[in-house]
Amino acid sequence: MIKLQDGDIRLRALEPEDLSLLLAWENNPTYWTSSQQRVPYSEYLMKQYLQEVGKSPYEVGQLRMMICYKDQSIGLADFFDFDIDHRRGALGILIGAEANRGKGLAESALNLFIDYLFKAFDLQQIHVSIADGNAASLRLFEKCGFEKCGLRKQWYRQGDSFIDEHLLQLLKGSR
User: Fold this and answer.
1) pLDDT in tens, 14-26
2) Which residues of the chain are modeled with pLDDT < 50?
3) How far apart are CA 175 and CA 163, in angstroms?
């Protein structure tokens, strides 16, 4: 059975009413290292994105869902780079407010999203890329069954230096 809710955590489709939250999160430079973004999105572009977001991941290669805790929108779960032939894709997660971090909410949402993705799209694997120094994300994904499978040296520029990127995978049936 495919579930989109577990206790107080629920995943839902993005809605036009999510515009202000999406703009705040996408345009926050502190998250840009993780997303590899370098410029802010305009309200116009984000409105266009929200009109397209309902299309099938088979068509657009991506699925983004809002993470809700007790019916409050607290973050995003993102599945992207969907490769239909090889049945794999990349995963990302964001819990927007500091006050909602460190409470196990990301782990609950991530487990729910992972189970949904494997069942709904018959995936063979999901992979993530995490910047070195992001210990919280590494711990989170390892708790959810991901295993390190590689390291890209000097992958991200951060100011005047470069940092490595960890590659992790979760294979079907491995958790």
Assistant:
1) 999 999 999 999 8
2) none
3) 30
- What is the C-alpha separation between 29 and 38, in angstroms, rounded? 8
Supply 34's token pair: 């993780």
CA nearest neighbour of 104 among 67, 131, 146, 57: 67
Question: SS3 sequence, the chain?
Answer: CCCCEECCEEEEECCHHHHHHHHHHHCCHHHHHHHCCCCCCCHHHHHHHHHHCCCCHHHHCCEEEEEEECCEEEEEEEEEEEECCCCEEEEEEEECCHHHCCCCHHHHHHHHHHHHHHHHHCCCEEEEEEECCCHHHHHHHHHCCCEEEEEEEEEEEECCEEEEEEEEEEECCCC
Say how far apart CA 166 and CA 164 lie, in whole Å: 7
